[in-house]
Specification:
This protein is α+β, with helices and mostly antiparallel strands and 346 residues long. It is 37% helix and 20% strand. It has three domains: 1-70, no CATH class; 71-241, 2-Layer Sandwich (D-amino Acid Aminotransferase, Chain A, domain 1), CATH 3.30.470.30; 252-344, no CATH class. The chain has helices at 6-14, 51-55, 122-134, 183-193, 206-213, 238-248, 252-261, 264-268, 273-302, 310-320, 325-332, 338-344, and strands at 26-31, 34-39, 57-62, 68-70, 77-78, 90-96, 100-106, 111-115, 144-151, 166-174, 222-227, 232-236. The model has no long low-confidence stretch (mean pLDDT 92).
Length: 346
């Protein structure tokens, strides 16, 4: 099956389809009648994204009807990432705030906020409560999706906003028409309801945006550029990226520890896209080494003396495969070789 628009996706939901991994590098989370779609980490490894993967950035649909419930931005990339650029005219350039993206929507009972990969993340729960306590949405059409940057002290990433607690409105989408509101309309709604908005940059070209970040410090993340065809790109300052990587602790040892613990996918899902290429390279190097040793162990195991005493097996191992001894004895005892390789070889 090819999922290439919301009509096809809604029909698949109504038909009870659940094998989403077969149509994209996407995972689904279910809460009652709601399904949240989020692209999987491996989607970030390549440059070929299909429509379903691009839309699965916190998209929420209703299983019973196939209707869109929450419509976040489609995935957008770093300027130049995978060769992606735009020749369209700039429409708007807004400050990229350093928090968590929140997806605000009417779930049929109340306004709530989720994050890209969870119905109940700490950031989403905080934002839902903050929204209830500080903003009156009773007059707001329930067909809108409000996109926020969630800022509060405990959610600091790199940039410090002091004691500031706020939901910055960064976009509005209509889940029925699929419209992505222009920035002037977003600002107008924000003023009506009392949401702060990111700073609007006064740039005439992409080169001006890039030049502005050339000497930016760690107190700024970057900019989001939107072009007249609606496509967005993000650009980040080098100092910010460097410090974020340091604070994230992303290194060869970090990847190795994640593989040893079996949590590597979970860990990779939590780091910025910019670091995934290098982290993936380290992971592939480690996997290559592990597979090479596993293959050598299996080749030796295939020609071992069978039905002999342990002492005889030991003499054979030391005479022919001393470098694999610890792994062959693990094999003899019915233990997995992989954890031993990860622990001993690096």
């Amino acid at each position: 099956m090819d999922v290439y628009n919301f009509e096809v996706l809604g029909e698949a939901l109504r038909d009870g389809f659940e094998d989403w991994a077969s149509v994209g590098r996407v995972r689904s989370l279910v809460e009652g009648d709601l399904v949240l779609f989020d692209y999987r980490t491996e989607a970030l490894y390549g440059t070929d994204w299909n429509w379903f993967e691009l839309q699965s950035r916190g998209l929420i649909m209703r299983r019973s009807t196939g209707a869109v419930v929450a419509l976040p931005f489609a995935k957008f990339f770093n300027w130049g990432e995978g060769g992606r650029i735009s020749t369209e005219r700039l429409s708007s350039v807004t400050e990229k705030l350093d928090g968590s993206m929140g997806v605000g929507f009417w779930d049929g009972v109340r306004w709530r906020v989720t994050t890209r990969g969870s119905f109940g993340s700490p950031q989403g729960l905080w934002a839902t409560q903050f929204l209830k306590e500080h903003h009156d949405l009773r007059q707001l059409p329930t067909g809108l999706t409000l996109l926020f940057e969630i800022i509060f002290p405990e959610n600091r990433v790199v940039v410090s906003y002091g004691d500031r607690q706020a939901l910055f409105l960064i976009g509005v989408r209509d889940r029925e028409s699929l419209a992505d509101w222009p920035w002037m309309d977003v600002q107008r709604l924000a003023e009506q309801i009392g949401f702060p908005t990111p700073r609007l940059g006064a740039f005439g070209s992409v080169n001006e945006v890039l030049a502005d970040l050339s000497d930016a410090g760690v107190d700024r993340e970057g900019w989001v550029m939107r072009f007249e065809d609606g496509v967005r790109f993000k650009v980040k300052g080098a100092a910010y990226v460097y410090l974020h990587k340091a604070l994230s602790g992303v290194s060869f040892v970090w990847v190795l520890d994640g593989m040893r613990s079996g949590r590597i996918e979970e860990l990779l899902a939590g780091i910025p896209d910019e670091f995934l290429g290098e982290a993936r390279g380290w992971r592939m190097d480690i996997e290559s080494r592990v597979e090479k040793i596993e293959q050598a162990v299996e080749a030796a195991w295939a020609v071992r003396p069978v039905d002999v005493e342990r002492a005889v097996f030991a003499r054979w191992v030391m005479a022919t495969h001393a470098d694999l001894a610890v792994y062959l004895f693990a094999r003899l005892d019915g233990r997995s070789v992989r954890p031993l390789v990860l622990r001993r070889e690096f």
